[in-house]
Amino acid sequence: MSNITIISNEKNWMEHTAVTQLQGVADLPGAMQTVGLPDLHPGKSPVGMAVVTQGVIYPHIIGGDIGCGMGLYDTGLDGRKFKLERWVTKLNNIRELVDLPTVNPYNEPSPIYDLGTIGGGNHFAEFQVVDTSYDHTACHAIGLKDSQLLLLVHSGSRGYGQSILKRYQDCRGITGTEPIKSYLEEHDQAILWAERNREIVVVKLLDYLGYTPQAKKLIDCQHNFMEQKGDLYIHRKGAVSAERGPVVIPGSRGALTYIVQPAGNTAMSAFSLSHGAGRKWARSLCKSRIREKYDRDTIRQTKLKSRVVCHDTDLLFQEAPEAYKSIDSVIDILLQYELITVVATLRPVLTYKG
């Protein structure tokens, strides 16, 4: 395990399967450095991981949701005037964002593939307010203010990225070859598409709720993507870059979101940071473990007094706060390793899943 670094501590439970998967990735030809972050958990490829390769790239590590990430927007609305019940009622009238018309404002051709939607699983659109500011100078630079209503969108490239993976998933090739050049070009297009998808989600939601969209992007950070650094390639699966400014690290729907600034020697973490809390339970186990704890109404509320709009009861249980690690523990580990400083925390007020 000489080329593996696991950033964790004795308090952070990490599933053995995830560590075994990480070892499998580290054994791939050309893998120079493999990092498991505090939110590491199993997936088709381990999630919460960065792997640095030389001379070869592996599209299957990135997976199908190329460009999946977090976009944080200032809605232009005053959080003190937020009408929770009114918005819950209105959002309950649509099952999915695909039910709302989508306008593609970009001039160049762009594949549709459910443009302007967030998808299933752990994807969401969440209205938030500032809970605590720890670095007022950094907050000002980002554009965070105490009174504003924010919108955090977690989504990716939807069917577009998946179509790319289908064509290149067996393409584990030497850099500089034609198939790899083609994959990287399409990969970059999917990253752009995913970022634009998040922007259109914001516009659609605010327009549907009856407001002239005045949203301003504050942060956008991908966590499923590949980045070239000299002659090396950093594959990130559920990990964000530590070299592109402030980062959004959300917890579960019942926890705070952290805004952090990368710090220290991030070379040890492959210039990467955690993308969230990380799953603790497999989705198949969630409902049986907490079914008796909630009814149809309480599953749609959180301990932070926020509300959840979601028409899929199974998904509500699969994405319950109990299914995730503590975001506070993840942040504490990143602080312990001197990889970040905390700028602010954000509190959810309304989460939409669809």
TrEMBL record:
Chain residues that bind Mn(2+) 2: 154, 223
InterPro entries: RtcB (IPR001233), RtcB-like_sf (IPR036025), RtcB2 (IPR017510)
Keywords noted in UniProt: GTP-binding, Ligase, Manganese, Metal-binding, Nucleotide-binding, RNA repair
Keyword Ligase applies: yes
Binding site for GMP: 122-126, 223-224, 275-278, 353
Catalytic reactions on record: a 3'-end 3'-phospho-ribonucleotide-RNA + a 5'-end dephospho-ribonucleoside-RNA + GTP = a ribonucleotidyl-ribonucleotide-RNA + GMP + diphosphate
Residues that, per the record, bind Mn(2+) 1: 123
Cofactor needs: Mn(2+)
Location of the active site: 275
Note on cofactor: Binds 2 manganese ions per subunit.
An example Gene Ontology molecular-function term: RNA ligase (ATP) activity
EC number: 6.5.1.8
The protein's name in its UniProt record: 3'-phosphate/5'-hydroxy nucleic acid ligase
Taxonomic lineage of the native organism: Bacteria, Bacillati, Bacillota, Negativicutes, Acetonemataceae
